Amino acid sequence: MNILVINAGSSSLKYQLFDMRTESILAKGICDRIGIDGNLKHTPVSNGKPVFNSSIPLPTHAEAIKAVIEKLTCADFGVINSLTEIKAVGHRVVHGGRKFSESVLIDGDVLDVIKSSTWFAPLHIPANLMGIDACREAIPGVPQVAVFDTAFHRTIPDYAHIYPIPYKYYQQYDILRYGFHGTSHRYVSAKAIEYLGGKAAGTKIVTCHLGNGSSLAAIKDGKSIETTMGITPLEGLPMGTRSGSVDPALVYILANLGGDKPTDYALDILNKESGVLGISGISNDFRDLETAAGIDTNNGEMLEGAPVNERAKLALDVFCYHAVKFIGSYIAVMGGLDALVFTAGIGENSPYTRAGICRLLNGIGIRIDMSKNGCRCGGKFMNITGEGSIAKVFVIPTDEELVIARDTIAIIGDF
Ligand code: ADP
What we know:
Elements: E1 2-8, E2 13-19, E3 24-32, E4 39-44, E5 52-55, H1 61-73, E6 86-93, E7 104-105, H2 108-116, H3 124-138, E8 144-148, H4 158-161, H5 167-173, H6 182-195, E9 204-210, E10 214-220, E11 223-227, H7 249-255, H8 262-272, H9 275-280, H10 286-292, H11 310-334, E12 339-343, H12 344-349, H13 351-360, H14 370-373, E13 382-383, E14 392-395, H15 400-412
Parallel strand pairs: 1-6, 6-8, 9-12, 12-14
Antiparallel strand pairs: 1-2, 2-3, 3-4, 4-5, 7-8, 9-10, 10-11, 13-14
Bound molecules: adenosine-5'-diphosphate.
């Protein structure tokens, strides 16, 4: 049974087609620059056919989906013979609001609820909806499932998700800390529980999803009880270009510098010009920052004699420092720690960042094996726990698309 997974952004649409009998990827790809000019990169994985990578006009998401389906089924680049081989579509939807604590089959009512969440994520939800509409048009009658980034965090208790502002905003407007990257935190925490022996009850795990957007979560008994992101993905850790948590009055101070669009100016600075890019002035990409700071990105060691850009080094230090502040508080609220998990682009690939965070946790007894940490995970699980550590330290590659495909199968059943 084949499941198409769609992750639609405002100007891009990523896809993977899974054969769920073996959970293997048949093809994957990305439509870029939708609404601008358009490019499609399509990679057949299962049959050795060539990669298609070319500019093609993609004025809307509907054209993008049509192009994807054409490539999936055509003779030269295809992996299936006809559309009937796609049993269902799973969509990543960035915000499920207060209503959705798990994935759902999309119908008119579900679409209405998703639409009503638009004001929480005005850039992402319309794009997600365009992806859903485009699939409904291109493959009518094929069931579609929504998998929400926020759903896994709906187990966070009231006292942790409520903002200390007047209660009416919570009651009337659903303003609360939702958290994001839930699909990733759910996947890697479930894997960590397997490596800890398979029983969720009693486990205390901190998952670190460190990518261009980064968030941490505290997972107790297999359930999310706290996470760093809030009502939007701006709260929490400093990130590639996002500030993370700052004094809220800073918005006002920045807005006063913003001329005739004060709020947009302040939010643009905090979302697009801050984080490690803002501090370093060099890049939001950790590879660039490590290289500028004289670090060997392969093993995280300092390169002898290499010049060290101090602001790049400072940006990396700030990132690790804030991560540790959150990790420490999560260990406190859970009353201990069984496993610290690193995942996503930086978590999986940056030995320097993992070592930087764990070095600051040395004082509370968390240790890593530096030679194991210096290895490339290459998409595989690594146990980098050091001698005498009070908790395991794992590197677990995330796979949000597989979770979406699994949820989709589970929901459609024998549809
Ligand atoms: P997102 O999905 O949020 O866009 P990813 O999870 O793909 O992000 O992570 C992207 C980040 O991963 C980039 O900032 C990049 O710096 C970092 N990254 C990828 N490979 C490496 C590496 N070898 N060393 C350090 N950082 C890396």
